């Protein structure tokens, strides 16, 4: 049989474990989201660089590339 004091202590322990598990799950989701966001940014950056290079090549072929001052 559990005394009242032991029961309270056990209840606090269970609550603490649940809270820690929720925090761990949330942390995991945040890390996952950060990885996805990083990958999207990287992909967007690569695409923008390719588009910029294509635009510069097109301007060079047409002879309208502005000269650096």
Shape: rod-shaped
N-to-C CA distance: 88 Å
* Structural category: mainly alpha
Task: Give the strand content.
Answer: under 5%
Q: In terms of quaternary structure, what is this?
A: single chain
Mean pLDDT comes to 93
* Number of separate strands: 0
Given as residue ranges, the uncertain stretches (5+ residues, pLDDT < 50) are none
Number of helices: 1
Largest sheet: none
Integer-rounded radius of gyration: 29 Å
Mind explaining what this structure looks like?
86% of the residues lie in helices and 0% in strands. The protein has a domain at 26-50. The chain has 69 residues and is mainly alpha-helical. It has one helix at 4-62. It contains 1 helix and no strands. The protein is rod-shaped.
Task: Give the secondary structure arrangement, pairings included.
Blueprint: H1 4-62
In short:
This protein has 69 residues and is an all-alpha fold.
Features:
mainly alpha, 86% helix, 69 residues
